[in-house]
Amino acid sequence: KGLTFKWISTVTGVPDRIVILDNQIKLVELKTPTGVLSERQKLVFKQLEEHGQKVHIIRSKSDVEAFLDGIFA
Q1: From the CB of residue 15, how many other CB atoms can be counted at a distance below 10 Å?
Q2: pTM of the full predicted structure?
Q3: Do the beta carbons of residue 33 and residue 60 sit within 8 Å?
């Protein structure tokens, strides 16, 4: 079991979802297979990563599977 919340913020460029699973909090951006990050997203994601928070970019079912494998490995 887990939780997922759509992240709605007054700051633009934040990841789409906050995922809580297996006692871990993950930040997730959902994109189509050809979707690109905006310059603002690149900046915000870099800031988050500078603070130790990786943003997982999910584009396909195989990305979802790899994301879950990383949590439960």
Answers
A1: 21
A2: 0.90
A3: yes
CA angle 63, 11, 19 (to 5 degrees): 35
Q: How far apart are CA 3 and CA 44, in angstroms?
A: 23
Of residues 41, 39, 20, the one with CA closest to residue 29: 41
**DSSP structure class, residue 5:** E
Total residues found in the chain within this entry:
73
pLDDT digits (tens, 9 = 90+) for 25-65: 999 999 999 999 999 999 999 999 999 999 999 999 999 99
Q: Which helix (H) or strand (E) holds 29?
A: strand 24-30
Residue 40 contacts by C-beta under 8 Å, 6 or more apart in sequence? 12, 13
